[in-house]
Design brief:
mainly beta
């Protein structure tokens, strides 16, 4: 009878032991003066639980399952502390953090990066996540699983010219900074990752703010902003040799090293990289070299850091795309056949970063930067008129020659320099940041003829066109967070931005494009973050951004048309929930554009495409991001975006190749914005098969994308669904502290798809026709990496 009673008792109590949930709470204090720390980041590692300490320095986690956990607490300016604890009852766990003997790198980017309680839609990514697939592909490809993101590669294999779109906005509409310093090209507004090969290997963390985000330096954020922080303090010496190889004769080799903290104050970190690939598209090879060096001084109240990084690229052009009627028969077709139809460029970056803790409440940051870029692309041109190059016809015997084959190079030689700064004031309730930047750009554009079919009367220094662009960009902003109560945080942000842009000289079509443009923008933002309880929070914000036209918009405009500035009002509302094993975020957005510049098919008087201002357009959508720890071995993550991307009234222009050679207008209403899919889904399933052995299957669905703004199915990119398999395994040996093996199988199921395209429409013989360029992406391909870490 006693045995039966004990058995029944055990079964009765088993749910208590197996499914019991407890609370963990405590206070985070300063070890030296016993003051509570507000805003300390508290994380139960291996779970979705995380929060910041409240106004009383207190944190609370409810409904924590019984088990053994590591609890990590971090706070800027203090040493991170981790405590291991066995949870089988309600537990009080306090932390006393010691002030660092050196400052943390986090303070360098406080002006551009937002905290967890910001009313902003954002995603953070750390170097460990980036490193899982960093086998040589460019940074946009490594970010393809981020919410609302679509990537593309001209060469088809993710190396060379690559790009990304977030919420349908391309690289020219995404603000990108490195350590708070602008990266976007001042003239085109774009970012060319091919000039920064293997830069991902020198990144510590990334924050992507979708929508307008908060005020930052550089180009206007019209779809998102990406904040990159390079290598941060590693107190111990290290060295790595990373090698990978794979399909299309792809190789990546890099060496990384760091001295650790020398004499308690100094560090040196470095990287040397080489990447090469034949590409998926015919002749679309890439030969890329780069380096990164950082030397820093860390004091208790200051940091002085010098970063120097450089990239050199030599790539065969694959810009033309594949004609539509060849996608089924010759997907790797490249229209360029001249052996040196290449792009050649070198870009050198210099950054001097300084931060000083002035007092308990004040923190000052400043940076000086300089970037030099120089290079050209070479092209073979057949049957070109002499007059197009300002060359007089020649006479051979009795024949007058006025056209010839030639090889030309178009050069760009530019300099970009300036300063950024911020002053932060922080108390228990208020955080205020005053920041800004002054930047100047100067770029020379010119064309040279390096070979011609006939001996023409020009010298080696002859340039048939030459023009200069100069731009001054100044901005100042003030941001304030006010903790109205324990649950409510109010955010306000105001930026003033002033731009002067001068173009002087002749374009390659011999037009004088000289002009001066000036802009003054006010960009206000406001929001509210509400902490419902330890599991749930909500936020809402509204932000305004103004954007000046690019050099290309001015350069290609007709004499009787001047592109106007663009304006965006971005409304965001979001909800977050997290418990021990599950975390999710859902948000809605409405991005209301005024005078957005779009391609309409209109051309200028020499045939170049013109972007014109569409009066009203918008993006309306819902984003969802979730993660579920199904078991200790299986983790599932998903993101989804459902959106409408519309231009309300649109006029499409079609060239007529028949006399009198005019453009024909077509009128549309409420059509889809180009290259803006209505549905994007990302999915990731990770299996921990054994200690240090991980299998991750990722999948991406991208809905139909229209090539122009007419919503015509014939001018669209089919929806596609692509899966990748990533395997990571690491182990230790007697002589090598860690060996990591990585296998990445891209496009696992050999999906035939295109990720980008262009179209040119025309009339001929009274009928409509079109030229297309599609960018097919590679079928099943692999990359295998072997990394040695010392």
């Amino acid at each position: 009878m006693k045995r039966q009673f004990l058995t029944a008792a055990v079964f009765a109590l088993m749910p208590v032991f197996l499914f019991a949930q407890f609370s963990i709470q405590g206070i985070v204090k300063d070890y030296t003066n016993n003051e509570t720390l507000i805003g300390a980041h508290v994380v139960i590692q291996g779970t979705s639980f995380s929060q910041v300490s409240n106004q009383n320095g207190r944190y609370t986690f409810e409904n924590v399952k019984a088990g053994n956990y590591n609890i990590k607490v971090s706070f800027i300016g203090y040493e991170t502390q981790i405590k291991n604890i066995q949870i089988n009852k309600n537990t009080q766990l306090n932390f006393e953090l010691q002030i660092n003997t050196y400052m943390s790198d986090e303070v360098l980017i406080v002006a551009t990066k937002v905290p967890n309680n910001s009313p902003t839609t954002f995603t953070n990514l750390d170097k460990e996540e980036i490193g899982k697939t960093n086998l040589g592909q460019d940074l946009p490809i490594l970010l393809e699983m981020m919410p609302s993101t679509v990537t593309s590669s001209d060469a088809g294999a993710g190396i060379g010219y690559t790009g990304l779109r977030i919420r349908g906005s391309d690289m020219t509409r995404i603000n990108i900074t490195v350590n708070g310093i602008p990266l976007n090209d001042a003239e085109s507004h774009g970012v060319y990752w091919v000039n920064m090969p293997d830069f991902a290997s020198s990144i510590d963390n990334v924050q992507i703010q979708r929508g307008v985000g908060t005020s930052t330096n550089g180009a206007a954020a019209f779809g998102a902003s990406i904040n990159l922080q390079t290598t941060t303090l590693n107190t111990k010496p290290y060295a790595e040799i990373n090698n990978s190889f794979g399909s299309y004769n792809t190789f990546k080799n890099n060496v990384r090293f760091g001295t650790g903290l020398m004499n308690g104050k100094f560090t040196i970190d470095g990287r040397l990289s080489k990447i090469s690939s034949d590409g998926y598209i015919d002749r679309a090879f890439s030969d890329l070299k780069s380096f990164y060096v950082s030397a820093a001084y860390y004091g208790q109240n200051s940091i002085l850091k010098l970063n120097v990084f450089s990239g050199t690229e030599h790539t065969y052009q694959a810009w033309g795309g594949v004609p539509k009627d060849m996608l089924e028969t010759n997907r790797t077709f490249n229209p360029y056949t001249y052996e040196n139809e290449t792009d050649n460029y070198q870009q050198d970056h210099y950054q001097l970063l300084f931060t000083q803790k002035l007092s308990k409440s004040f923190l000052f940051n400043a940076a000086l930067h300089y970037t030099h870029g120089e290079g050209y692309y070479e092209q073979f041109k057949e049957g070109r008129d002499f007059e197009d190059y300002l060359i007089d016809p020649i006479t051979i015997g009795t024949e007058t020659i006025d056209e010839m084959d030639l090889i030309q190079q178009k050069w760009l030689d530019n300099d970009f320099y300036g300063a950024t700064y911020s002053l932060k004031y922080g108390t228990k309730k208020v955080n205020i940041i005053l920041g800004g930047a002054w930047n100047k750009y100067s770029g020379d554009h010119f064309g040279e003829i390096i070979w011609s079919e006939y001996a023409v009367n020009i010298d080696k220094s002859y340039r048939w066109y030459e023009n200069t662009g100069k731009k001054r960009d100044f901005n100042i902003f003030a941001k304030a967070n006010y903790q109205l109560s324990e649950k409510i945080n109010i955010y306000g942000d105001m930026q003033f931005r002033s731009i002067k842009f001068d173009i002087d000289g002749i374009h390659d079509d011999l037009r004088d494009i000289s002009q001066t443009r000036k802009f003054n923008f006010w960009n206000p933002k406001a929001g509210l973050f509400y902490t419902i309880d330890q599991y749930r929070s909500a936020y809402a914000s509204v932000a305004i951004s103004n954007r000046e036209p690019s050099r290309g918009n001015y350069r290609d405009s007709d004499a009787n048309y001047t592109p106007k500035k663009e304006k965006l009002i971005d409304y965001e509302i979001g909800y977050k929930y997290k418990n021990q094993n599950f975390a999710m975020e859902a948000n809605g957005f409405f991005m209301d554009y005024k005078d957005q510049l779009v391609l309409t098919g209109k051309i200028n008087n020499v045939g170049d495409p013109i972007m014109t201002n569409a009066k009203d357009s918008y993006r309306l959508g819902i984003e969802f991001v979730g993660g579920y720890q199904i078991s200790s071995e299986i983790k599932w993550e998903i993101s989804a975006t459902l959106s409408k991307n519309k231009v309300k009234d649109f006029v499409s222009f079609i060239d007529s190749w028949d006399p009198p050679y005019e453009q024909i207008e077509e009128y549309y209403t409420n059509t889809d914005l180009s290259i803006s899919p209505n549905l994007i889904i990302g999915n990731s399933l990770t299996l921990t098969a054994a200690k240090n052995l991980y299998f991750t299957l990722t999948s991406k669905y991208v809905g139909r994308q229209y090539i122009d703004n007419t919503s015509n199915l014939d001018r669209s990119i089919d929806a596609y669904f692509v899966s990748n398999l990533n395997i990571n395994y690491s182990f230790k040996t007697k002589y090598i502290p860690e060996i990591e093996l990585q296998l990445l199988v891209n496009n696992l199921f050999n999906e035939k798809y295109e990720s980008n395209a262009w179209v040119y429409r025309y009339y001929t013989g009274g009928s409509k026709d079109a030229l297309y360029g599609y960018y097919p992406q590679a079928g099943t391909n692999f990359l295998l990496g072997i990394n040695l870490k010392f």
